[in-house]
Amino acid sequence: MSLRTDYCGELSSADVGRTVTVAGWVDTRRVHSEHLAFIDVRDHTGVVQVVVDQKVDARSEYVLAVTGTVRARPDGMVNDALASGEIEIADTTVEILNEAEPPPFPMHDRTDVDENIRLRHRYVDLRRDKMQRNLRARAKVNSAIRGAMEKQGFVEIETPMLIASTPEGARDFVVPSRIHPGDFYALPQSPQLFKQLSMVGGMDKYYQIARCLRDEDLRADRQFEFMQLDAEASFVDQEDVFAFISEAVADATEAVSGERPAEIPRMTWQEAQERYGSDKPDVRFGMELNDITDLFGETESKVFQTPVVKGICMPGGADELGRNAIDDLTDKAKRWGAKGLAWFRVRDEGLEGALTKFMSEAEIAGVQERLGASSGDMVFLIADSRRVANKVLGLLRLELGRPPVNEGGFNFLWITDFPLFEEVIDGNPIPAHHPFTMPHPDDVEMLNTAQGDEWLDIRSQAYDLVLNGWELGSGSIRIHRSDVQARIFEILGIGPEEQQAKFGFLLDAFKYGAPPHGGFAFGIDRLTALLVGEENIREVIAFPKTQSGSDPMTNAPSPIDPAQLDELGLRVLPRQD
Ligand code: ASP
Predict the structure, then answer these.
(1) Adjacent-strand bridge partners of 230
(2) pLDDT tens-digit series, residues 490-534
(3) Ligand 1 centroid to 379 CA: how many Å?
(4) Closest CA to 216 of 449, 545, 507
């Protein structure tokens, strides 16, 4: 039999006169006299006020069961802020189910608490309203995604956790094998190769809410382990992938926010770079980058005799940014790779700014017109290579204009036509996505002719999904032919022997009738965080690691027994630090 009849937050005037039992934690208590106290009892639905007229020593976070009669609160005592604010439970019997130490931090959302302390006592932290809301929103996201994939005919397939390494561009977590001393499994950076192999295996449409592990430096938006919706389908093109993923994110968004996003717009990678200086543009605000190179065709100043001049205008920035702020931005621009940062304030009386002396009247007028800058605005210019100008102005734009995470609605955006390679190191191009991505059909020929930086001009059939300037996920149409895959490996500097050793199984599989296929994966932690308006993904993860990758509650990572090491055939070297 259940220990309760009702949930605290669900009682209302409709229950007046009923005898009920609620159970939960002591949220607050107000003691009026030895024989009269009011206790707010809390469960995951909310709180209810309980009138106690016996002597009960129930302190903060004690666990109680309270039986009594629901009655309307006296006039003037109604609390509009609470769902159950019109009623209270009176004539009560209180049973203390468990005592509790005083909580390690204040339980109310209003207070800022050190994150380490919260994580050390996460079981208490999870009782707080915000964590309850966030984790329940996350469960809705998972459930909506599952529903969306199932209704579109996707089959859930579980892929292994102990695998050989999959190259997704990060470091692997490895697990030593006891039975094969000296050998290691890797934990999956993603189920990438298994999902592709399941396509070769005729599964047609695969999905999984998959745990992925990457040994990367942690930031606010990263954890070593994270969850993603991982999907793959056969005989599809990019449009099909956009359609099934859009359905999943739309259903998830609607489940949490009640709003269904409109059809997701698209932008090519090239356009995103030119207009926003980023492959994950935050389109919630303007301040777009403008190419004004042509205005400086005749310039006499060396400063502007560069391949590209681009600028942004910050509306109202003239008064907002003082000298210190500008110096600070200039330092940042230099750190990001610029030689300097040109700026001027537009005023009715004329312009203010050091660099204006290097510009002719016509150039100044042209810049102002092109950037739409009027009195009170601030203009920033970067004269450099296209890559540097885009990157630096893109970062500057975010610094100056990015709205808080919970403002501006949900602006999903597909970024298409990613380059196949992101940089060339020692003559070897490095994949922008992963080595299994199909090149763009119009650029395949370039794979045989490209040299030096030309590699960077080859487009791929890879695409990203962006939400409010955050990369939610990526995917691509894959290579499904053994010869093309081997050629890409070769271009990446992976020779025939290494190909055979690391990816022989994949190249083999492609020889046994691999269908054309493509897929996608997006992060559930990040999506949930944005849907509930949290900057930090740890706020939507039940038991996250700290920024230094440890768990203050269980003390992971921690040393293991010498006997365990022996069994695994491992020896730990003394630390170098
Ligand atoms: N495996 C990729 C990732 O985890 C996604 C994909 O290409 O489907 O980012």
Answers:
(1) 208, 521
(2) 999 899 999 999 999 999 999 999 999 999 999 999 999 999 999
(3) 39
(4) 545
Q: Give the pair of three-digit tokens for residue 234.
A: 């056969």
Average pLDDT over residues 390-395: 98
Q: Using one digit for the tens of pLDDT, what is the confidence trace for 541-570?
A: 999 999 889 999 999 999 999 999 999 999
DSSP 393-438: HHHHHHHHHPPPTTSS---EEEEE--BSEEEEETTEEEESS-TTBP
Distance 471 CA to ligand 1 centre (A): 12
Whether residue 354 has pLDDT greater than 80: no
Mean pLDDT taken over the chain? 94
Asked whether the predicted pLDDT for residue 19 surpasses 70, the reply is yes
Query: What is the mean predicted confidence (pLDDT) over 534-544?
Result: 95
Alpha-carbon span 366 to 379, nearest angstrom:
12
Residues near 161 by beta carbon (within 8 Å), at least 6 away in sequence: 187, 188, 211
What's the pLDDT band for 81 if we cut at 50, 70, 90? Answer: confident
Interatomic CA distance for residues 176 and 182, integer angstroms: 7
pLDDT confidence of 1, banded at 50, 70, 90? low
Residue 190 Cα to ligand 1 middle (Å): 7
- Tell me, using a 6 A CB cutoff, whether residue 190 lines ligand 1: yes
d(CA 473, ligand 1 centre) in Å: 7
| Nearest atom, ligand 1, residue 462 CA | 7
The values of phi and psi at residue 411, to 5°, are -105, 85
Q: Dmax over Cα atoms in the chain, in whole Å?
A: 90
Which H or E element spans position 97?
A: strand 87-98
Per the structure block, which two tokens stand in for 504?
A: 């022989």
**DSSP states of 500-530:** HHHHHHHHHHHTTTPPPEEEEEEEHHHHHHH
Region 468-483: mean pLDDT is: 96
Which residue of 230, 242, 244, 418 sits with most ligand 1 atoms within 8 Å of its CB, as the best mutation to test the pocket? 230
How many CB atoms are closer than 10 A to CB 221? Answer: 16
Query: Is 159 a pocket residue for ligand 1 (Cβ < 6 Å)?
Result: no
**How many Å separate Cα 146 from the centre of its chain?**
19
Token pair recorded at residue 396: 């500057």
Distance 251 CA to ligand 1 centre (A): 21
Answer yes or no: are the C-beta atoms of 40 and 28 closer than 8 Å. yes
CA of residue 422 to ligand 1 center, whole Å: 16
* Residue of 544, 454, 569, 557 lying closest to 134 (CA atoms): 544
pLDDT band at 285 (very low <50, low <70, confident <90, very high): very high
Q: Sorting pLDDT into bands at 50, 70 and 90, what band is 220? A: low
Looking at the CA of residue 189, tell me the nearest atom of ligand 1.
4
Quick check: CB of 437 below 6 Å from ligand 1?
no
Q: Which tokens hold the place of 83?
A: 């769902």
* Confidence category of residue 213, pLDDT binned at 50, 70, 90: very high
